[in-house]
Amino acid sequence: MADFKQVRSWAALAVLGLVAASAQAADVKIGVAAALTGGAAQYGQAIRQGFELAAEQINAAGGIHGDSIVLLVEDDQGKKDEAINTFKKLIHKDKVLAVFGPTLSSSASAAHPIAQQAKTVAFGTSLTVDGITQVGDYVFRNSVTEAVVLPETLRKAVAATGTKKVAVIYGNDDVLTKNGYENFKKALDDQKIAITTTETYAKGDVDFKAQLTKIKASEPDAIVISTLIAEGGPIVAQARQLGITQPFIGGNGLNTPRLFELAGERSDNVWVGGPWSSSNDTPENQQFIQSYQAKYGKQPDQFAAQAFDAMHILAKGLQQAKPSGDVNKDRAALREALPHVTHTGATGAFRFQQAIDKRGKPAGFDAVQTPVVTLTQNQQYVVQK
Fold first, then answer.
1. Position 25 pLDDT exceeds 60
2. Separation of alpha carbons 58 and 63, rounded Å
3. Is it true that domain 11-144+282-370 has CATH number 3.30.160.60?
């Protein structure tokens, strides 16, 4: 009798094991490659938090047809080789249905071909460099390109300030900052704004007084800047220390509360273009901000907002794709469903538009969204209508 009970106990444990395995197999695994350490960590950490908040909300509302989203997060360190390694691991070992990331456009250019070759959706939330989606039809992004954002930012700043000539400063060793410079240069030419001087710096620089002294001597009406926040904050602060009072005009890299931490009271009079602002009072945005503050105890930034919206966009695609448990089949179904998703979230109304590659053939999918232009006042971003 004891032997029979023991056998029955083992059988029950085996059934429980099968149920647990089945439940685990039903999880919808999504990869995240983000710069959690290194120079871009301030962006990567915010991105991770945006994803986690959205996944928590989606799962609380029933997940994907009853199955929970599970995020597998890897640190790409803001480096190309690490981005390649994380994409390979997430796609080939972890068998995720899609991969968010990487954080930086330079890393994406190296990692996204891996996803395209494996027919796995790669979804960028912070990638604004032109041409990212030309890799192929499995590459998506909900980040509005610099080619869309920067001309509109310049136009509004020039109209408000009467600017006729500008000095330019940009990072010359990063894909994002160089692409930003190129888009600003084109916009300046198109809007017939003269350039008094062009100065450059490299990642990791901390002293910008030599460049700023030249800028001051050139007597511009404003300063156009293409930068990441690690250098951008100190540039703004040091400019004010040197008595440069003219407005700065920049893009996504300055759209973070970190600017106020780095530049403090000297952070006023900076024009910033991006897809999101904490000052936008739409119900969707205010709900996001309140939820983020409740969970993390701090203000979100653009990068958290874009990740939050991206997770909800992907979830809508997954709902339409109806994952079956067959990874290759589900990856293909998600790819077919995702282009048709529309969403109104923290960053506003959103839809995808298919990009065209250099050969004139359909490629991946870019964001269609209206840029938001803000001006920093009293350490806040104020939306400029």
1. no
2. 5
3. no
